[in-house]
Specification:
This protein is an all-alpha fold. Helices cover about 70% and strands about 0% of the residues. The protein is elongated and about 80 Å long.
């Protein structure tokens, strides 16, 4: 093979790598922000917009480590030495199989493992081409082992975090006061843990690992104790002052504000009567300055239609619960609402780090095969040593594709997780997000492409079991559905990939 040959395979690889990254963003967005939306700490728009930034940074800065494992650790590339173009074809078929299954599952709202999908697809193509000997079963075994370890590890870590939080704060006689006392330290510890992983286990090219540990500790505790001041929290929760989040940065200079008076029943009735009176006006309008009914029926412009289509994913209601789910939620212990509010910001913070971890880990599922395709196309040979680096443009391409899928189609799977496994409050959401982030970031830097779906599901189940109602606090039907989709993922993606590869290489062609 000459360098530059089979450009059409390279083009197909780019197309299906985009579709695979798109599906990853659409399917796995719930892993990071589903709990935050389900608990009410964020609405869907806020969650998606924040995730766009976090997913992009994680994929771009830290996505190369697990990509190395995906692109070269599953099949024996020596078998493709004499025909490098077959390796290109195998990777293209793998992306087709993976993207097809992930997009199908996303359309049904099924949270599947995108890591399962690409591993199954690569394995299927390898078996179709050279039989079972082409697959590095030790590499597959390591990844399968991580699938078992990751939910268990995330569940254990999450359980410890939540039980300590419940003992120290939630079950205390004056939980709000205790929470106000300890929360700044929660912020400090949370930020330090995540910054530690990002800096010392992060992208080598950033050169951040040279910073001394003492400086990291000092900066972390300083920021956490100054920015998230107890004064701000006490004034907003105890004093119920209508302060904005940015007031925390200069809270001591903000004058005391009175609470906005609530609308009384009499005032509400008066407003309703006034609205009804305005509704009966003879000019066909509803209230002063509102749009005429005829205007509301005017057809939308093409730009408006495109805008509504593009941002459809930001305008979905994913928090609706059935009567059965309400019963499951009622089995969970509820804690002081104001104390729970203390954890809202913490939950958002941990969700951001979990999103960063997801971007760093799961982008490899699409850009790993694309990197192999690009290397063969550019050099006309197989990278037998496995020393090739991930080009910056491929990391950037994967990160952007991930964000597009998250923005336009992520609400589907988020609606399945959210509150449909167990009751999620801000304190529970904080615990499971931090536990998941620790697990995924650690495994990511060990080169183990773990499933964030497995981690977040294990963490969520652990929180549900600790919620007071035991097994009755868990929606086992949804968990069974999720488990079934996991079992189908690897063989489904492998079957599609293997069949396509087998048909192409065995079809009649000129010698």
């Amino acid at each position: 093979m000459i360098a530059g040959d089979y450009t059409f395979l390279f083009a197909l690889g780019i197309i299906f790598a985009f579709l695979d990254s798109y599906g990853i963003g659409a399917n796995d967005v719930s892993n990071s922000f589903g709990a935050a939306v389900g608990s009410g700490s964020l609405n869907l728009k806020q969650a998606v917009l924040i995730a766009l930034v976090c997913e992009f940074l994680g994929a771009f800065l830290m996505g190369s480590s697990t990509a190395d494992t995906i692109k070269g650790g599953l099949i024996d590339v020596n078998l493709f030495k004499e025909q490098p173009e077959l390796l290109m074809l195998a990777m293209v078929c793998s992306l087709v199989g993976s993207s097809t299954w992930v997009l199908f599952a996303s359309s049904r709202g099924l949270p599947v493992s995108t890591t399962h999908a690409i591993v199954g697809a690569i394995t299927g193509a390898g078996i179709a081409g050279f039989g079972f000997n082409t697959v590095k079963w030790s590499g597959v075994g390591t990844i399968v082992l991580s699938w078992v370890i990751s939910p268990l590890a995330a569940g254990v870590v999450t359980t410890l975090i939540f039980l300590v939080t419940r003992f120290l704060i939630l079950k205390h006689q004056d939980s709000l006061k205790r929470g106000l006392t300890l929360l700044p330290y929660y912020f400090a510890i949370t930020i330090f843990i995540n910054v530690f992983y990002i800096i010392f286990k992060g992208s080598p090219g950033l050169g951040l690992s040279k910073l001394p540990l003492g400086a990291i500790l000092g900066i972390t505790f300083g920021v956490a104790l100054v920015v998230f001041l107890k004064v701000y929290l006490r004034r907003t929760l105890e004093g119920e002052e209508p302060l904005r989040w940015y007031h925390a940065f200069y809270i001591r200079m903000v004058a005391t504000r009175t609470k906005t008076p609530e609308i009384t029943e009499e005032l509400a009735e008066g407003k309703a009567a006034q609205f009804a009176q305005n509704d009966d006006r003879s000019d066909g309008t509803i209230g002063d300055g509102l749009m005429d009914l005829d205007d509301a029926e005017k057809p939308m412009s093409m730009f408006q239609k495109l805008k509504n289509k593009a941002f459809k994913g930001l305008n979905q209601d994913i928090t609706k619960n059935t009567e059965a789910m309400d019963t499951i939620h009622d089995n969970s212990t509820r804690y002081e609402p104001k104390t729970e509010q203390l954890f809202c910001t913490l939950q958002v913070l941990t969700a951001c780090f979990a999103s960063f971890a997801h971007g760093s880990n799961d982008v490899a599922n699409a850009i790993g095969p694309l990197t192999t395709i690009y290397y063969v196309w550019k050099n006309g040979m197989v990278d037998l040593e496995g020393t090739s680096t991930i080009p910056i443009w491929i990391l950037l391409f994967g990160a952007i594709s991930l964000d597009i899928g998250l923005l336009t189609y992520g609400y589907k799977v988020m609606a399945t997780l959210g509150n449909n496994i167990c009751y999620i409050s801000p304190s529970r959401g904080f615990s499971l997000s931090l536990g998941t982030s620790l697990t995924v970031l650690t495994c990511s830097k060990l080169g183990m492409p773990v499933s964030t779906t497995h981690c977040i599901t294990g963490a969520t189940t652990a929180v549900g079991l600790c919620s007071g109602g035991g097994r009755k606090s868990i929606n086992w039907k949804v968990l069974g559905l999720i488990a079934s989709s996991w079992l189908l993922t690897l063989p489904a993606a492998g079957l599609v990939s293997g069949l396509i590869f087998a048909v192409i290489i065995n079809s009649p062609h000129k010698m």
